[in-house]
Amino acid sequence: DVEELSDDALEKQGELVSEAVEAIERDDYVLALDRLSAAVALGCAGALLYRRRAQVLLKLGRPRATIQDCTRALGANPGLGGAYKLRGRARARLEQ
Q1: Cys-Cys crosslink for 90: which of 1, 36, 40, 66, Cβ 3.0 to 4.6 Å?
Q2: Across the chain, which distance is largest between two alpha carbons, in Å?
Q3: Torsion over CA of 7, 13, 15 and 16, rounded to 10 degrees?
Q4: Tell me: the pLDDT tens digits for 33-66?
């Protein structure tokens, strides 16, 4: 496991997240998911990154993947209330 990203990788991760945010603003959730997944793949993904990707996954109709990312986010930061709410919405979709 990588404990810390290099400066270059951290910069690349920031660029990918910025591109994802821009894609979300354009309602391009497929591109946003691609960029967020690439940012996660670089390593050292934090709770907020997982929660953001979970939001996109739910928009794309993928509640199981949403739940997985919310659980990862909560594992990194149990105080991240938005992840509980998002996970609950995803579970509700599965029950429909």
Answers
A1: 66
A2: 45
A3: 160
A4: 999 999 999 989 999 999 999 999 999 999 999 9
C-alpha distances out from residue 94 to 9, 63, 66, 79, Å:
36, 7, 11, 24
Locate 40 and state its tokens.
């996660």
Evaluate whether 35 touches 16 at the Cβ level (below 8 Å).
yes
Neighbour tally for 22: CB within 10 Å? 13
For residue 42, give both structure tokens: 């670089």
Query: How high is the mean pLDDT of the chain?
Result: 94
First CA to last CA distance, the chain: 38
Q: Which of 96, 65, 75, 77 is nearest to 87 (CA)?
A: 65
Half-sphere exposure of 86 (CA within 13 A, CB side): 29
